[in-house]
Design goal:
Layout (H helix, E strand, L loop, with lengths): L9 E5 L23 E5 L2 E2 L6 E2 L5 H7 L4
Parallel strand pairs: 1-2
Antiparallel strand pairs: 3-4
């Protein structure tokens, strides 16, 4: 018997989507973390010497912190 595969639902958000106007504006708070099995946050830089995110915009780290599920 094979085990059923676990469903993967990837949600993608850009760091600039919050700057759009009207209905196209998308904030981190709009993501339902229980709907997504994975969240891709574009765009960030990862330090090449240690597992650390380097922000590309001044508030990126704060927004990434908001995505952490408690």
């Amino acid at each position: 018997d094979e085990e059923p595969s676990k469903m993967v639902r990837v949600c993608y958000i850009t760091n600039w989507s919050r700057y759009r106007s009207g209905e196209a504006k998308f904030e981190i708070e709009f993501i339902d973390p229980f709907m997504c099995s994975h969240i891709i946050y574009a765009y960030a830089t990862v330090d090449g010497h240690k597992p650390e995110i380097i922000p590309r915009q001044k508030d990126d780290l704060g927004l990434i912190q908001k995505m952490k599920i408690k």
